[in-house]
C-alpha cells in the first residue's frame, strides 16, 4: 500500500513539473517512420542475434534520444516580447515588432513562433538566435478591441536537430500594447461659421491688447519699455501684448454610465470622439480633449497620442453625468461618413 502511494506521489510530481515547464513533444511524420524503423530493426536483431543489427539498432535509438535532448536545450531559455512600430488601432492590422531573446548558453535553431491574441494566431519563422542574444522580427496582428493589452501567450516550436521530434513551449509574451479606438472618416457638425466648437487661447508676443508686465531682458525692444512703471519700481519693465493664436477644436466624452443607454453605445461614442479628434489633428488644427477629471490640449503629435491613449483606456464610471465644457464636440455632433459604424 505504501509503495502504491509513493508511486502516485512520484507520478504527480512529474506531471506538475511537466506542466510548469509548459512543454510538449510530438513525433513528426519523419520521426514516426524513424521510430517504426527502430522497432523493426530491433525486432529483427533480437530474432536473428546479428551483432551488426544490434549496432544499427543502438545507433538509431541513441539518435532518437539525442534528438530529444537537443530539442529540450534548443527551447530552454527563451523570452518573447512585443513592441509597437506605429500606432495600433482596434480592428486594423497593426505593425508590431517581436523580440525573441535567448538567455541561455545554447543557440536557438529553426524555430516557429506563434503569437495568440483573441481568436487570431500569427506565426513567423526564427531561423537562428545566438546564445545570450536577441533578434527582432516584424509581425502584423489585428486586435479587435481598444485598451491595454497584456498577458498574451505564444507557442515556440522547433524540430531541431533532425526533424524527428518537434518540441514546443507555451510562453508568456512580455510588453504592453495600447490599442487606440476604431477610427473612421467623420463629419463634424459645426453650428456656425464663427466656430461654435472652438476655444480661442491667448499668449504673449503680439500686438493686441495688454497681456502682462515683465522685467526687461537683454534683446527686448526698448520701445516696449513702460517708463512710468520702470521709474516707480526702479527696474526696467516691458509691456507684453496679446497675440491670438490657434483655435482649439474641443472634444468631450462623458464616462458616466447614466449618460449612455448601454456599453455598446459608449464604445460607439468613444470611436466617434477618437475619429473626430484624429480628423481635426490631421487637418492641422489645435485639439483639446476633455473627460471628467482630465483635459489635454495642444497641436503637436504627442498631445494627440496622449489623447488617444486616454480614449483607449476610458471606462464607464458610476459618477453622475457631467455637462461638457462650452464650445465642445460631443459624440452627438459627429457622424460617420457613409454610415460606417
3D structure, described in words:
The protein has six helices and 18 strands. The chain is α+β, with helices and mostly antiparallel strands. The chain folds into two domains: 1-180, Immunoglobulins (Immunoglobulin-like, Sandwich); 186-203 and 246-339, no CATH class. The strands form four sheets. Strands 1, 2, 4, 5, 6, 7, 9 and 10 form an eight-stranded mixed sheet that branches. Strands 13, 14, 15, 16 and 17 form a five-stranded mixed sheet that branches. Strands 3-11-8 form a three-stranded mixed sheet. The termini are far apart.
Percent of residues in helical segments? Answer: 25-40%
CATH superfamily of the largest domain: Immunoglobulins
Radius of gyration: 33 Å
Distance between the termini: 67 Å
SSE-based structural type: alpha+beta
Largest sheet data: 8 strands, mixed
Q: Count the domains.
A: 2
Count of runs of 4 or more consecutive helical residues? 6
Topology as H/E string? HEHHEEEEEEEEEEEEEHEHEEHE
What's the architecture of the largest domain, going by CATH? Sandwich
Bin the strand percentage: 35-45%
Outline, from the CA principal axes?
Answer: elongated
Unreliable runs: 1-21, 192-196, 198-208, 242-246
Question: Got a strand count?
Answer: 18
CATH class of the largest domain: Mainly Beta
Pfam families: DUF58
Keywords: Membrane, Transmembrane, Transmembrane helix
Protein name: DUF58 domain-containing protein
